[in-house]
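One chain given next:
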Amino acid sequence: MTRVLSSWRRLGLRMRLTLLYGGLFFLAGSVLLWFTQLLTARALNQRFVVAVASKVTGAPSVNGGAVLGGKLPDSDVLAQRVRTNVEQGAADALSDVLRSSVIVMILVGAVAVVLGYLVADRALRPLDRVTETAQRLSESTLHERIGLRGPQDEIKRLADTFDAMLDRLHRVFDAQRRFIANASHELRTPLAVNRTVLEVSLEEPAASEDLKALARALLGTNARYERLIEGLLMLAQSEQEPTARKPVDLRQVVRTAMEQIDLQPRRRKVVVHEDLSPAVAHGDPLFLERCLVNLLENAIKYNVRDGEVWVRLREEEAGVSVTVENTGPLVPPYEVDDLFEPFRRLGGDRVRSARGSGLGLSIVRAIAVAHGGEVEALARPEGGLAVTVRLPSDPGSSYRR
């Protein structure tokens, strides 16, 4: 029973409605056929068999009562024989009628199933429009609407409700874009002014050493705030789906990202091993570059002395994958998922902002998800992480393994 229910649920709504229509038709046809057969048998028995038998019983003897074989025919025996023959004929007629009716019901039922499928397809076509519109929509196409026309039935109300929801989403995304643009200006400007004032004070000849030391400390704090704000704005922008996608050579993106990072952080040299196969993804080149820069920076920053980093680029059946693996401190497997949360670091540290803003992997995941991809991280038994970003190779699609 459970297997039957599971198979029934796997069928589409159109096929389930068709089977339901067909099942109801055959059920109603079977009941109608049974009642028709019962009433026909009753009518034949009452109006034909009984009537013929009574006529035979009350009829004159054969050959006007003459002797047949030395005996007069027994009317009761003759009536019984006639009745038996009539009943047998009626039964044969009912069997022929039943057989023909079953064949006709099967043929008409097949036509009814086809018509039921066509009716279900016609009834569900507006729902297909709603589904196609929902699948096609993204942040850059929220202006599209279903615009279903027709009577004010349940499907029309559903389409109108969906359009109203799109209106609200469009307004929310517009407000978010304006907020990001305004925040970008309002937050960067005072920090830039502070940095300029501090840099000028450091160049002032009359400034005392204590004042210069204070200016350098404030300059470092100001730089950390700038990195934090840049990370927050990048995270907010990364969560938005790219407005324009184009083919991107990921090998070139990886090499460009490697040119932007320091391979000797705090005088600890890190060796980077490359294994880059030709791979093309569709997306925003700048965001994909930021994704790889964050991955490489994270792999180098949280490494050991004379550590190693492996960068592998592969083309898969469903898309492309980039894996950045590094040596480093041991990472408990239960903390791996928490590293993708904003401001989370290894060991639950939220304080040491000098080592970064804690948004690197969060931005990586946001960019991957916005491009229809996914991120997977595994803790290496000998220490470090292996982070894999998978991206779809077709525009507008989602990665499926």
